[in-house]
Design a protein that fits this description.
With 196 residues, this protein is mostly beta strands. It is 10% helix and 44% strand. It has one domain. The longest helix has 13 residues. The chain starts with 12 loop residues before the first strand and ends in a 5-residue tail after the last helix.
Length: 196
């Protein structure tokens, strides 16, 4: 199934003071990946509810980080504690905001599925979302069917890099993606040894 495609490439980082944003903000760029390919690359895939969301400066007061606690409902891939902590660059502290184009946003109480990998820092137990915003799905209930459906906010991700020198507009699926289908696809990939 190729419901959604995408993965990680560097994004533009913008620092804004007092909420003033440049008008020429550049959209994020991602690589074209299927759900199975993301599942193969992710260390863990978690279905859970967003708990505490906090922003703070790093020790050198040069970067802002946001930490997001996910209260785990279930692991679709891998295993771990009941609460998983995501740590990502960006956020707002006082009048200063550090924004990473294409970075996912989280709201306390939001139900999500996230594809995660270690964040590469020295902070133990910290994760980052694989594929940036493309690796985070919001879970809602379809009012007609009662099924749990998934959506992604890809607003700032505008293109897919196929090769370093070429790209094309991102393909946004119009078909609904059900939670049960994504879970099944992730679990099949894991059973196959991470081969999409």
């Amino acid at each position: 199934m190729n419901y959604y495609r995408s993965a990680v490439l560097p994004a533009l980082v913008i620092v804004a003071v007092s909420g003033a944003w440049p008008s020429n903000t550049v959209a994020g760029v991602v690589e074209d990946l299927t759900i199975s390919e993301m599942a193969a690359r992710a260390t863990i895939v978690v279905h859970g509810t967003v708990g505490q969301v906090e922003t703070s400066w790093d020790e050198s007061h040069t970067r802002i980080f946001t930490t997001v606690d996910i209260d785990v409902i279930s692991y679709f891939s891998g295993q771990g504690p009941r609460t998983v902590r995501i740590r990502q660059v960006g956020g707002r502290v006082g009048d200063t905001e550090l924004r990473v184009i294409g970075q996912p946003t989280f709201r306390t109480g939001e139900e999500v599925v996230v594809f995660l990998e270690p964040d590469g820092s020295r902070v133990p137990g910290s994760w980052v979302v694989l594929c940036m915003a493309a690796g985070k799905f919001s879970v809602t209930i379809d009012e007609t069917t009662g099924e749990l459906v998934l959506s992604r906010d890809l607003g700032e991700i505008s293109s897919i890099t196929v090769r370093a020198d070429r790209g094309r507009p991102i393909r946004r699926s119009v078909r609904p993606l059900f939670l049960r289908d994504l879970e099944g696809e992730v679990r099949r990939t894991v059973r196959a040894g991470g081969t999409p």
